[in-house]
UniProtKB/TrEMBL annotation:
It comes from the Eukaryota. Keywords: Electron transport, Membrane, Mitochondrion, NAD, Respiratory chain, Transmembrane, Transmembrane helix, Transport, Ubiquinone. It comes from Schistosoma turkestanicum. Its EC number is 7.1.1.2. This is NADH-ubiquinone oxidoreductase chain 4.
Length: 231
């Protein structure tokens, strides 16, 4: 759907229809879910989510890549709703909102680059990201938000998802969730590393290493503020 739809439609799908629609379906079917069904549903969703992550690693189309990665992140909301208590529902909604904003920002960035170079291939898109320092900084921050780095809203949902697995006492599920979260973030950071390596090795792109320092400073400022406020 994302590959054929326009970018504004993809932004709406990633931010509202897909994520919040899933939450609505789970709430409607909440009474019919038994303990056995919960384990079966989580196993099935994890299986397809891992397939989405593996497929996104080999996807050269930037829009398809983001669509596959966005589909794989649905499992976090499912864990929060099925394994957590009533207070986890609000966190699940915040996770949907945070990932919708991050994926929507990434879709907008891909949309803008596509209108200028008429291509969604990573081999061409990554070279466009180095034309200015502002664009380099913006792309790096968007990649970090999609991968769930603090201070994004997704990080709270991911931490509570691990906590819900610990409370449930299911060691296998805890290991799967931990590996899934690590793998999902690793896919995004791998693409970001490819972007930076492509920029630094290309002679016709003005790559500024100061962007790495600026991104690091901004990132640790946000993390420090969060620790100061909540801890």
């Amino acid at each position: 759907v994302h590959a054929e739809a326009s970018s504004p439609v993809s932004i709406i799908l990633s931010g509202y229809i897909m994520k919040l629609g899933l939450v609505g379906i789970l709430r409607i079917c909440w009474g019919s879910l038994s303990v056995w069904n919960v384990g079966f549903i989580l196993t099935l969703i994890f299986f397809f989510s891992l397939l989405y992550i593996i497929s996104s690693h080999y996807e050269s189309d930037s829009k398809r890549w983001l669509a596959l990665l966005s589909l794989s992140h649905i499992v976090i909301s499912v864990i929060l709703l099925l394994l957590g208590d009533y207070s986890f529902e609000l966190v699940g909604l915040f996770y949907c909102l945070g990932h919708g904003l991050a994926a929507g920002g990434m879709f907008m960035l891909i949309w803008w680059v596509n209108t200028l170079i008429n291509s969604r291939s990573w081999s061409l898109v990554v070279k466009f990201y180095g034309f200015s320092v502002i664009l380099q900084l913006l792309s790096a921050l968007v990649f970090m938000m999609v991968s769930g780095f603090p201070p994004s809203l997704q990080i709270f949902g991911e931490i509570l998802a691990v906590d819900a697995c610990i409370i449930s006492g299911n060691l296998v599920l805890l290991i799967l969730v931990s590996l899934y979260l690590f793998g999902a973030s690793l896919v995004v950071l791998t693409v970001l590393g490819s972007v930076l390596c492509s920029l630094s090795s290309s002679s016709n792109v003005n790559f500024s290493y100061t962007v790495v320092v600026v991104v690091g400073v901004v990132y640790y400022i946000f993390v420090g503020l969060l620790l100061f406020i909540f801890v």
